[in-house]
Amino acid sequence: MLTRYDKRFLSNSELGGWYTPGATPIIVEVDGFRLGCAICIESQFPEIFSDYERMGVDGVIFSSYGLPSYFQIAFAPMPD
Predict the structure, then answer these.
(1) Over the stretch 7-47, which tens digit does the pLDDT of each residue have?
(2) How many domains does the chain have?
C-alpha cells in the first residue's frame, strides 16, 4: 500500500463515534493520469473538488453506495 484516503466530510452517524475525519486530499498517478479520491457524502461538498482542481488532477475517483440520483454519476471530467 502506497497511501490511503480518509474521508474528510462525514455523515452525522459517522461523526457519532465511528470515525475521525481525514485532513488531506491524496493524489495517485496511474498511467500518467493524476487522480484524486472522494467518498459518498463528499459529493455534496464542492471544496473537495476545488482542492483537486487547484492541485491539477485529471479526474476524481468517486466511490459511493446510495439510491439518490446524485450518487449515480458515472463520469464527470475535470474542466479545462
Answers:
(1) 998 888 888 877 888 889 999 999 999 999 999 888 888 99
(2) 1
pLDDT score for 78: 55
In a domain, 60, yes or no: yes
2 lies in some domain: no
The Cα–Cα gap between 11 and 80 comes to: 31
Average pLDDT over residues 54-75: 76
pTM of structure:
0.72
Inside any domain, residue 6: no
Q: Checking DSSP bridges between strand 59-63 and strand 27-30, what pairing results, if any?
A: unpaired
Residue 5 lies in a domain: no
Partners of 62 in beta bridges: 38
**Residue 52 is part of which domain span?**
12-69
Q: What is the 3-state secondary structure (H, E, C) of 7-37?
A: CCCCCHHHHCCCCCCCCCCCEEEECCEEEEE
